[in-house]
Amino acid sequence: MVDAKSNDLPVSPIYSPSELNSFIRATQIKQNEKNVDIVFFGGEPTLNNKFISELIAEQDKEMNEFTIRYMLHTNGLLLKHIPETILYRLNAMVISINSLKIPPIHLYDSYFETILSSIRFIKRKNPIPIIGRFTITENTSLYTLVMQFHHFFDYVYWQIENCQQFNNYNSFYKSYTYDLKLLVNIWEDYLKKGIVLKLIPFLSCAFYRDKNIDTLKFLCGYNYNMLYIQTDGKCYSCAEDFLSNKNLIGTINTSINYPDFSIKNTRCNSCDYLSMCFGRCGRMHREFSDTHIFEYCKLNMTMFSYFKNNHERINSICRENKILTERMSFITDYTEYVP
Questions:
Q1: Nearest Cα to 75, choosing from 134, 31, 6?
Q2: Which of 127, 207, 220, 224 is most open to solvent, judged by the fewest CB atoms within 10 Å of its CB?
Q3: 243-247, 250-254, 263-267, 314-318: which has the minimum mean pLDDT?
Q4: Which CATH number fits domain 5-330: 3.40.190.80, 1.10.1040.10, 3.20.20.70, 1.10.150.170?
Q5: Can you give the residue ranges of every domain in the chain?
Q6: Alpha-carbon distance values, 122 to 47, 82, 193, 244 (Å)
């Protein structure tokens, strides 16, 4: 996460909840959309519970014409201090796990226990879906992270770090795909026993099929229905890069304008896995070289090919074990969906 002070950004929003609501209303009317998903993101949003509480209270009074869902994206360290005015209004929560803080031994009284304690606290108060999110880098193990934490979350999701280049791609590819194959085998073994491990990338590839999805749009919402509002009121089409103006699309005091850029502008149109991947990341296609983009493609193709080649067999296992395959739209609205 970006440190606000060191990057000359306001620590707290310089706009009022009323100003933000006026912008949301104007944007939704322009898009002819009655549903609003608001994600409290950071930095760490629980450091400013006052603004969040005021925003929700004002929306309750002034924005009844919209259906609003709230999600908190947090590091999970301050959840025991979250006001009930926020907690009971949340529809879902994402807790980002910092793998560097997990000790190899003595898990008690550590970062690991703090996260588990936070999850237990939230579940006692409001049993909403809680998603565990990991950033996978060349220095982390996908298998280790997922196996260590998946028992404690309703869903688990991971994102391969977006970076300008890998230090040693060949080594990373071997490590990541090996871990991925281990997880796929474990996931299928559980499936045969009638148990579905809620690993979002696997669930999405195996079960998430919607003929109404526009395959020309990035599922993360990049450049068509997702915008990130910074504390200074500037609006961006991607939450990952707001220190430059590459993804700046306006401010809350002006209109926003999405650039004409979608999957049609990429080489993904001819990919056999388009209906699973949907381009992965829009910003990636605008800022990375074709060679680097294909490195991310290769990392995910192991997963895509497995689920595409075994689609009928997986569904047969589900039928035999009376497993109801679920539509994932609610959860995938809050994740990038594809690692």
A1: 134
A2: 127
A3: 243-247
A4: 3.20.20.70
A5: 5-330
A6: 17, 9, 30, 36
Which tokens is 145 given?
Answer: 């992270």
Q: Report helix, strand or coil for 77.
A: coil
> Strands, DSSP E only, in the chain?
35-40, 67-74, 92-97, 130-136, 155-160, 228-229, 234-236, 248-251
CA pair distance 131, 118, nearest whole angstrom:
13
Q: What is the mean pLDDT of residues 55-77?
A: 93
The contacts of residue 151 (CB under 8 Å, 6+ apart) are none
Work out the angle at residue 230's Cα, subtended by the Cα atoms of residues 111 and 130, and round it to the nearest 5 degrees: 40
Q: Is the pTM of this model over 0.85?
A: yes
What mean pLDDT is predicted for residues 27-42? 89
Residue 107, pLDDT score: 92
Residue 18 and residue 57 in contact, taking contact as beta carbons nearer than 8 Å: no
Cα separation, 97 vs 108, whole angstroms: 16
Task: Give residues with Cβ within 8 angstroms of 100, minimum separation 6.
Answer: none
Contact 127, 162 (CB under 8 A): no
